[in-house]
Automatic annotation (TrEMBL):
<dbReference type="GO" id="GO:0003676">
    <property type="term" value="F:nucleic acid binding"/>
</dbReference>
<dbReference type="InterPro" id="IPR038763">
    <property type="entry name" value="DHH_sf"/>
</dbReference>
<protein>
    <submittedName>
        <fullName>Protein containing Phosphoesterase, DHHA1 domain protein</fullName>
    </submittedName>
</protein>
<dbReference type="Pfam" id="PF02272">
    <property type="entry name" value="DHHA1"/>
</dbReference>
<feature type="domain" description="DHHA1">
    <location>
        <begin position="3"/>
        <end position="34"/>
    </location>
</feature>
<dbReference type="InterPro" id="IPR003156">
    <property type="entry name" value="DHHA1_dom"/>
</dbReference>
Amino acid sequence: MYGGGGHAMAAGAKLESWDCLKQFVKDTNNYIKENNQ
């Protein structure tokens, strides 16, 4: 029971951090574009 809950929680945390990572990459790309103009 605990193991299953832990796996679900880990998957949720991983998904959340992945969304943050994608947003970070997007912001970084925009920042680079603005500075290269």
